[in-house]
Amino acid sequence: MDTQRIADAARGLRHVFLRDMVLQASIGVHPPEHDATQRVRINVDLGVEDDGARPLSRVPIGRDELIRVVDYEQIANTVRAIVGSGHVRLVETLAERIADACLTDPRIHLARIRVEKLDVFADSASAGVEIERRQGN
Prior knowledge:
It contains three helices and four strands. The protein is an alpha+beta fold.
């Protein structure tokens, strides 16, 4: 995954991520790919509002509550639901759907999504795409 920084106190962003989710997906343009699932690896990197990044907005001690953060379990469940929702022809389309779903949360300012097909070529570990989308684009 690209090492470009997402967490940034000056911009008030924290980095929430999911690494190397491997799921079975119905994906591909070729007829044999319509009949069977194949392994995909998905990485999700999110730039999320960080309410503790600026001194004037520090979170009071004791506010250790799930409600004030983006829940990565919910993001993982959303990714699983999108992948399981039916056949997709292109990895680009799958990545866009995941990014769009993440950006429905107004606290998420940036979504960087990587989708890789793992069993496409015998001489390559993977083939795929990475996209980055921002709130309002």
